[in-house]
Structures are given as structure tokens and as C-alpha cells.
Inverse folding.
């Protein structure tokens, strides 16, 4: 019985892959991409946040662009600057493709609403890449975005001087131009060249899909 | 003859110096990862080589440019990154401990003045036997490959995995 289930599962998986390949009908998606793109994109709930310029950042800001999201906090000296630097490298590499560059945005979402105000976020994000957007807001609104993406974060117990650390998901989350959660680059995929090549593949297959759906 | 004894003296001196260098703890390539000048925390990295015959422990770090310095380690569980403070850092005899992006680092807390790329950060590292090493760590951008250094072997994809950590 178990064997049969495995057999059926395996066949379904192969069928799905073959279907995906024939659908793409072009270059094969890098094998790893199957672990990056969600089987089907997920809609996001409404949320109301503020960007580093004080403007509203809600779901509508995702429309029409691919958004690269990273969740962290500015008091994080190791993982956050490393990952922001990596995201900046991805954007710099994509400068070779002006059409692509026009259709992407990099967003740093602070999970430290208490300490990260729009002004401090501005200095932070622009340092890594001139067009990066910094986003903050109240816990409830941050939570509706993080929960829908499966982003986890947790504050440590404060020390005597009131300082605290935050553990947080360190992946790079991709929201597509329809405002849906589309893909996730987990830390083992954090290499600028890899992300660029996967992303270009992803954009292409998304373009073909929207064409097929008769959308513009 | 005088020349010869001078030469012997010099050689003895050199050998003694070499032996001293070989039997102590050394700091190799200390640096600080450049970050926006407004941040309140930065990270310093280096290799600590212990050529002494005894195990050493790094017990205290100070910098005149920061209110305090702590030993931290970034850890990854599923896709969750966390920082774990360490009270001290053992450097076993004959071993090298590497502090690098995505792993062990010295967390520099509350700079007196903004720290910029190209600055030099003085660090005093005190070990358990009282040895104190003073180094200058240059502030620079992470190398391109620094971003990859916290990679771990690929795990099966699990979009919900991170939720388990929350409950």
C-alpha cells in the first residue's frame, strides 16, 4: 500500500515535471528552481505599512513589479548587512538588463517596529542600493505580511540595558507583479549569480504564463 | 671573532623571536564589515590562531570607539537566523578559530561616532591568561563571497517550516 502510494506520488511528480517542461517548451528550468518557486503563487492579505519616505506601503505597492523582500532589523550587524549586500549585488548585476531593472524593487521590511523608524530605515536601505525601499509599521500589520509569507521572527528577552536581539527568517521572498507570493530564496540559494539566473528564468516563465492566460 | 659572536647573537635572537611568535596567540586579518553610518551595531571578523601549547580563551574585548563589544554567533535553523551571545570564546591549542560573516563575530555596540568605510577600529582582546592583544580592524565592504559563507547544505524546501519555530 505504501509502495503503491510512493509509486503514484513518483509518477505524479514526474508527470508534473514533464508537464512543466513541455509547457515551458524551452530551456529546462534549473533543477534547483523547483525548490524556489511555489507550486502555485499565493495571494497576500491586506496590510498597511509606511515606507522610508513616510509614504503608505500597502499591497498595491506590489502591483506591476517583482518585489524582492528581506525581513530584518537595523540593529543586526551580521546577517542583515550581508543579505542586504547580496540583494544589492543582484540589483547591480541586473543593471545590465534595463528592462528587468525597471520592473523590480528591493524591499527591506523591519521586524523591529520599536527601534526602526522611517528615518533610520532611509539611511539604512539607501546605503546598500539607491532604490531600495525600507518599510516599517505596527506589529499587527507587519504580522499580516509576515504570516502570509511564512516569515517568522521572535524578540529575545531584553538585557538590563533594554537592548534585545531578534531571530528572524533570513530568506529572500519574491512577490510577483500580481502581488502574489511567488518564490523564496532560502539561505542556501544566497549567491548573487544564482539568484539572477533563477530570477530571469522565473520572469520568462511568468511572462509566458500571463500571455497564455490572455492577460497583458 | 667579534663579528661571529654578533652573528650568533643575532641568530639566537631571531630564533627566540620566532619561537615567541610560534608559541602565542595571534590575530589574523581583523576587519569590520562596513554598514550605514547610522547603525548602532557593527560586526568585526578575524582569525584567531593559537600556537601556544595550552588552550586559550578570549574573555574580554574592548574598543574606545564603542560602548561595549560582545562575542556573538549567527546560527541558522531551517531558514531562521538567530544571534547567540557567548560569554567567552575558547581557542584550543594548535587551532585557528575563524570569525566570519554569517557565523562567529564580535558585535560592536553603540559607536561613539559614526563609523565609515576606510576607518580603523582599535580592538583590545584579552585572553584568560592575561595576554592582551591590541589590533586595528579596517572597516571595509564584505567580499562578494562573504554573502555565501553562511550557506549550509541544501535542505528539502518547506515553506511552512519557519512556522514551527514560532509555536
Amino acid at each position: 500500500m505504501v509502495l503503491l502510494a510512493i509509486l503514484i506520488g513518483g509518477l505524479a511528480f514526474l508527470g508534473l515535471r514533464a508537464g512543466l517542461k513541455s509547457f515551458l517548451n524551452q530551456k529546462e528550468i534549473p533543477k534547483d528552481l523547483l525548490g524556489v518557486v511555489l507550486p502555485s503563487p499565493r495571494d497576500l492579505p491586506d496590510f498597511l505599512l509606511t515606507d522610508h519616505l513616510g509614504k503608505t506601503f500597502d499591497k498595491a505597492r506590489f502591483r506591476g513589479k517583482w518585489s524582492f523582500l528581506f525581513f530584518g532589523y537595523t540593529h543586526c550587524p551580521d546577517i542583515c548587512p550581508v543579505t542586504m549586500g547580496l540583494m544589492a549585488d543582484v540589483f547591480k548585476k541586473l543593471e545590465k538588463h534595463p528592462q528587468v531593472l525597471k520592473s523590480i524593487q528591493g524591499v527591506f521590511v523591519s521586524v523591529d517596529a520599536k527601534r526602526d523608524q522611517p528615518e533610520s530605515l532611509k539611511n539604512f536601505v539607501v546605503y546598500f542600493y539607491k532604490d531600495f525601499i525600507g518599510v516599517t509599521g505596527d506589529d499587527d500589520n507587519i504580522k499580516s505580511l509576515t504570516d502570509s509569507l511564512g516569515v517568522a521572527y521572535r524578540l529575545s528577552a531584553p538585557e538590563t540595558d533594554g537592548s534585545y536581539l531578534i531571530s528572524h527568517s533570513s530568506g529572500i521572498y519574491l512577490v510577483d507583479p500580481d502581488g502574489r507570493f511567488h518564490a523564496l530564496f532560502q539561505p542556501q540559494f544566497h549567491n548573487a549569480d544564482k539568484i539572477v539566473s533563477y530570477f530571469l528564468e522565473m520572469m520568462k516563465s511568468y511572462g509566458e504564463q500571463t500571455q497564455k492566460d490572455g492577460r497583458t | 671573532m667579534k663579528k661571529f659572536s654578533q652573528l650568533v647573537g643575532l641568530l639566537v635572537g631571531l630564533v627566540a623571536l620566532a619561537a615567541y611568535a610560534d608559541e602565542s596567540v595571534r590575530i589574523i586579518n581583523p576587519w569590520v564589515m562596513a554598514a550605514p553610518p547610522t547603525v548602532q551595531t557593527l560586526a568585526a571578523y578575524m582569525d584567531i590562531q593559537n600556537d601556544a601549547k595550552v588552550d586559550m580563551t578570549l574573555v574580554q574585548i574592548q574598543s574606545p570607539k564603542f560602548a561595549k563589544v560582545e562575542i556573538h554567533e549567527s546560527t541558522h535553523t531551517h531558514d531562521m537566523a538567530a544571534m547567540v551571545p557567548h560569554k567567552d570564546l575558547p581557542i584550543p591549542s594548535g587551532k585557528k578559530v575563524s570569525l566570519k560573516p554569517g557565523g562567529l563575530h564580535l558585535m560592536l555596540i553603540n559607536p561613539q561616532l559614526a563609523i565609515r568605510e576606510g576607518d580603523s577600529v582599535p580592538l583590545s582582546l584579552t585572553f584568560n591568561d592575561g595576554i592582551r592583544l591590541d589590533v586595528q580592524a579596517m572597516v571595509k565592504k564584505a567580499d562578494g563571497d562573504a554573502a555565501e559563507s553562511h550557506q549550509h547544505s541544501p535542505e528539502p524546501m518547506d515553506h511552512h517550516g519557519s512556522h514551527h519555530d514560532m509555536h
Q: What stands out?
A: The beta strands of chain B are 25-33, 41-50, 56-62, 66-77, 80-86, 89-91, 96-99, 104-111, 120-127, 132-140. Chain B touches chain A through 46 residues (CB under 8 Å). Confidence is low (pLDDT under 50) at residues 14-22, 146-167 of chain B.
